[in-house]
Every structure is written in C-alpha cells, then in structure tokens.
Write a structure and sequence with these properties.
Elements (H helix, E strand, L loop, with lengths): L1 E3 L7 E5 L3 H14 L3 E5 L35 E5 L4 H10 L5 E5 L11 E3 L23 H15 L6 E5 L7 E2 L2 H18 L2 E5 L6 H11 L4 E3 L8 H7 L2 E5 L3 H8 L5 E4 L2 E2 L2 H12 L3 E3 L14 H20 L1
Parallel strand pairs: 2-3, 2-4, 4-5, 5-6, 7-9, 7-11, 9-10, 11-12, 12-14
Antiparallel strand pairs: 1-3, 8-13
Helix pairs in contact: 1-9, 3-6, 4-5
C-alpha cells in the first residue's frame, strides 16, 4: 500500500486490482483532485471473481493474502478502476453510511447509480446523470512531468539528430497480434525515415513486444541514429515523450495512444493484426478529433489542442465533495 500526502485534512483511497493500466488511471485522477491518497490493491479469489461485480456476498472474505486491507476509518473519497475493485468500493460506501464519495473509472459493469460518479471512456457508450465521459483513458501526463523527464533523459539522446521521433511499441494481447511480418515492415519503415529524412529514433518496446520482434528491430536500426531501450536502465517512456518532436505508437494500447496524444505532438498510429468494436471506435474517434493519423511509412506534421479529461472529472469530484460537505454541515 502506497501513501501520497498533501495538506488537505480529507483523504482518498485508490482501489484497483493492481494492473498498471488501471492503477495509473485512478492515480492520475487522485493526483488531479489533490487529496492525500493511499493505493490499495485488491486481489480477490475464485469463486467470487466468477460473479458479477455488484453481487459479491462478503467481499472481504474473497481477498487474497497479497491484498491490502479494506478497513475503517473510511476515506472521504474512493476512486476505483477495474471490475474486481467494484465490490470493495460498494462495500466501503455501505460501511461508511454513504459518507465516502465513490468514483469509478471505466465501466463498472453494475448499476451506475451505485456510485456517486462514473467516468468511462466515450466508446463504452454509458449514459446517466452521474456519468462524465472521457475521450480516451485517463493519464498522468502533465507539462511538468514531461519537462522533468525530458531533462533527466536528454543526456542519453543528445547524440541523436533532430527531429527526434519517439517510437512506442506494445505487442500482442487478447485483441491484437504483433506478427513478425508487421514488425519487419515497421522496422523497414523506421529505417527509411532515418535514411531519407535524417531523423533520430528513440524506441521503447514493451515486454509484450517479444524477444524475436525486438531482435528484428535492433538489427534493422543497428547502424542508424537510434536508441532502443534495453529494459535494464530506468524506463525512459516519459522522457522520450517529452523530448520527441513526433511520435509513432502501436494501436494495441488505449493508454499508450492516449498518453502520446496528451503531448500535443503529431501521433502516428501503427495498426496491428486484430481489433474489436471498442478499439475500432476509439481509434476512429481519435482520428476524427485530429489527434492521430495512421502511420504509412511517412512522417506528417500537424497540431491540436489535447483534451484535458482528468481536469474535467476532477472538477466534478470537487463539486460532489463540496455538496456532501455542505449537506453534513
């Protein structure tokens, strides 16, 4: 359990199953709200996880030994993300007698009215008086965070020419497949833009990219002005975003595309094999809004004003907290 402090007497819990993509979204919102917060990771066991999240009997009995404790005193604000966090958010709301303001990020897959506020992405198509949609996933990207990360990693990339292109590569998951053919094509395209346009490349693969695909990338870029993260040094992800003039990103992660678009820089999306309705709607909405364009082997230049979903939702939370405080007074 991690604790983050501020000078506010009220407090907040961030409750998630501990998956990075979910936790980062809830933490981003907690940071924007500004209350001191604790991160609580819940890892429930079967057979509870087979049940709909709104219908768990005795959810505390489901907690595994590697879970954080869910116990009084209850927080003023609870921000949850992930289906398996839902039963614990609802439990805390009941145990606090409704004193805890509950906010769920993404689709809770239960009654929306069970929460004080639900913040799903637009492609979830949720509607209700307590629903505030985001254009994409919530993120922790701020101008200050990018500037600090850029300053930290600038010495590692100072030998690369400008313009600098950050290349964010995900990989295969339950929806997409990064095939050897796709990575070979991408490696060739990256090589071409280096040779034809004199750009520098700052490449950050992920664990999902796979060792053979990474080997293909390294071989194609070995004699070019390119840096490929080795997974051993500090993660340069935010630094590369802050330093880049342009960004290329694979389509398999909503969070990764959203974070790239938070920079206001041109974001070129590499499409992988696969997809589903939600991903397709997400990418279509990002293209239509002018945030992204498909990567077809050429770099383009355009500008846009990034959406600020985190601030919008944080403002709504502050309104709810004020209303609850006034009603108690």
């Amino acid at each position: 359990m991690a604790t983050h402090n501020s000078n506010d007497a009220r407090n907040c819990w961030v409750v998630t199953p501990g998956h990075a993509g979910m936790e980062n979204q809830a933490v981003a919102l907690a940071e924007a709200v500004g209350l001191p917060f604790q991160i609580k990771r819940v890892r429930p066991r079967v057979p509870w996880t087979w049940l709909p999240p709104g219908w768990w009997p005795l959810p505390l009995a489901a907690l595994g030994d590697d879970s954080d404790a869910i116990a009084a005193p209850w927080p003023d604000l609870l921000i949850s993300c992930g289906r398996r966090a839902v039963p614990y958010a609802l439990w805390v709301k009941r145990q606090s007698g409704g004193a805890t303001t509950t906010v769920h990020v993404q689709n809770p897959q239960t009654r929306l009215s069970a929460f004080d506020l639900v913040a799903p992405p637009r492609h979830d198509h949720l509607q209700g008086p307590n629903v505030v949609e985001s254009e994409a996933s919530l993120h922790r990207i701020t101008a200050l965070r990018l500037a600090e990360a850029a300053a930290e990693f600038a010495p590692q990339l100072e030998h690369l020419p400008r313009p600098l292109v950050a290349v964010l590569i995900g990989g295969s998951n339950s929806c997409f497949e990064l095939t050897p053919e796709i990575i070979t094509t991408l490696a060739g395209q990256l090589r071409n833009i280096c040779l034809e346009h004199g750009v520098g490349l700052a490449v950050t693969p992920s664990r999902r990219t796979g060792p053979e695909n990474i080997k293909t990338l390294r071989a194609a870029l070995a004699d070019l002005p390119a840096v490929v993260w080795n997974f051993e040094d500090a993660n340069p992800y935010f630094g590369y975003l802050g330093l880049a003039d342009s960004i290329i990103v694979t389509c398999d992660s909503v969070n990764m595309v959203t974070e790239a678009c938070a920079t206001g820089k041109p974001v070129h999306v590499v499409h992988l094999k696969g997809g589903n309705r939600k991903f397709n709607e997400f990418h279509a909405s990002m293209r239509d809004a002018g945030y992204t364009r498909p990567f077809l082997g050429k770099l383009e230049d355009w500008r846009y004003q990034p959406a600020d979903d985190v601030a919008k939702i944080a403002n709504k939370i502050h309104q709810l907290l004020r209303l609850k405080s006034n009603s108690v007074a």
